[in-house]
Specification:
The protein is an alpha/beta fold. The protein has 22 helices and eight strands. Among the domains are: about 70 residues, no CATH class; about 120 residues, Rossmann fold. The strands form two sheets. It has a four-stranded parallel beta sheet. The chain is globular. It starts with 19 loop residues before the first helix and ends with a helix. The protein binds iron/sulfur cluster (2 copies). One iron/sulfur cluster (SF4) binds next to helix 2.
């Protein structure tokens, strides 16, 4: 394959060893270079068969390849563009459910209710009797749901806010599954001196639908979120979900430069920061060592998507934790938005790899993305490893104000 193809790939192969699907299969067609070659064939007018389409659709959009590619080939983005051409989209009925549950306030309420029920073992067992309604692999993820934790505000929290106005982007999965984490993020931002606003009119960022190949229809969510931010008069948008943060930063790509929303989307995306970056920038008090050891999993959309690795580590160390690194901390855990629901075998294999990488001597695994948290927590339970999987925010809150339960 000499020369450069239409997507700028020079076939150097530097990306191959970073690709999780290549790691699992060893197939060139399941590697970034192989996928770019398939896309090039498609661009040249070759009709792709179902197997080739499957190889493309197996891409996790983890962006590990994009980070190491010397030619800056945006493989994950190119595959997503291909998915968005519905003619080639495998029939994942999931998109319809996502649109229902995430698209309106009542849908989000139903989603929260569904998640709340799914926390109970008895419901999980009952659901397993109706595999046609909720597939067993979806229910297997419910094992990773946290037991209900009632959020309690800290007894001593200085309200002497002097810093910038920060809008918390709540995120639909964070809101439904890890609502207490969002409350604790507000406490930490307040401790750091921020004036926190949480506008109720904010909507889902749209990432889950976009990654399922459906960009059409989420534009109104994007416009809404930009307007909500402008109306809040905040200068920063803090995000507790790595997946949401990466997608919110991509909002300008959804408008042509001539569109009046293009510039507004640019201003919005420049204000978006992961919660760890906001807290590090604003500063939290240092704490003495607390004897707890933590290993960090780098969510793809934080590490590869936003180049955020050091901020959560620095915060945890400053709060008194000792870090114990796991191998390949930034290798995808198989969650991939809704990937673990649509590509069950691959997601399970990557989940098992991640669980095996968690050092045995740690007290918890830290991360910053709800999809990874569910996936790894479910994997830890499945493989009999009794190590909690916690959001960085929850561990920080615990260091400053005691137990999270
Ligand atoms: S985005 Fe991830 S899964 Fe997709 S080709 Fe690149 S490294 Fe492989
Ligand atoms: S690293 Fe980039 S240029 Fe090299 S094979 Fe992979 S996609 Fe092509």
């Amino acid at each position: 394959m000499p020369g450069m193809n239409s997507h700028g790939c020079v076939h150097c192969g530097l990306c191959i060893s970073s690709c999780p699907t290549y790691l699992v299969t060893g197939l060139e067609t399941e590697s970034p270079r192989g996928r770019v070659w398939l896309l090039d064939q498609h661009a040249a007018g070759v009709t792709l068969g179902s197997q080739a389409i499957q190889h493309l659709d197996d891409c996790l959009d983890c962006r590990a390849c994009e980070e190491v590619c010397p030619a800056h080939v945006p493989v994950g983005h190119l595959v997503n563009q291909f998915r968005q051409n519905t003619q080639y989209l495998p029939s994942h009925s999931l998109s319809k459910s996502l649109r229902h549950f995430l698209g309106s306030r009542s849908g989000r309420r139903q989603f929260r209710q569904l998640v709340a029920w799914s926390r109970y073992r008895v419901v999980q067992r009952t659901m397993s009797w109706f595999p046609d309604w909720i597939p067993p692999d979806t229910m297997a993820l419910a094992a990773g749901l946290p037991v209900t934790k009632v959020y309690q505000s800290p007894k001593e929290l200085s309200k002497n806010v002097h810093g910038p106005s920060v809008m918390l982007f709540t995120g639909c999965v964070m809101e439904a599954v890890y609502e207490a984490t969002n409350h604790r993020a507000i406490d930490l931002l307040t401790l750091a001196g921020a004036q926190v606003v949480v506008p109720s009119a904010q909507k889902c960022c749209g990432a889950l639908l976009a990654h399922s190949g459906e960009l059409g229809g989420i534009r109104q969510w994007v416009v809404n979120n930009i307007e909500v931010f402008e109306h809040s008069q905040a200068t920063t948008v803090a995000v507790t979900s790595g997946g949401c943060g990466a997608f919110l930063k991509e909002y300008p790509t959804m408008f042509s430069p001539a569109d009046p929303y293009f510039v507004r989307a640019q201003r919005f995306s420049e204000a978006v920061h992961d919660i760890s970056e906001v807290l590090l920038e604003m500063g939290l008090p240092s704490k003495p060592k607390n004897g707890q050891r933590i290993s960090m999993h780098d969510a793809c959309h934080l590490a590869h998507g936003q180049n955020i690795r050091q901020a959560p580590r620095k915060l945890l160390q400053d709060a008194g934790y000792e870090l114990v690194e796991m191998p390949d901390a930034d290798r995808c855990c198989g969650a991939g938005g809704t990937y673990n629901l649509t590509h069950v075998a691959m997601a399970r294999t990557l989940q098992a790899y991640k669980v095996a990488d968690v050092p045995s001597e740690v007290n918890a695994v830290a991360l910053g993305n709800p999809g990874c948290q569910l996936q790894i927590a479910a994997g830890m339970k499945k493989h009999g490893r009794n190590i909690p999987v916690e959001h960085t925010v929850d561990l920080l809150w615990q260091a400053y104000w005691g137990q999270t339960t």
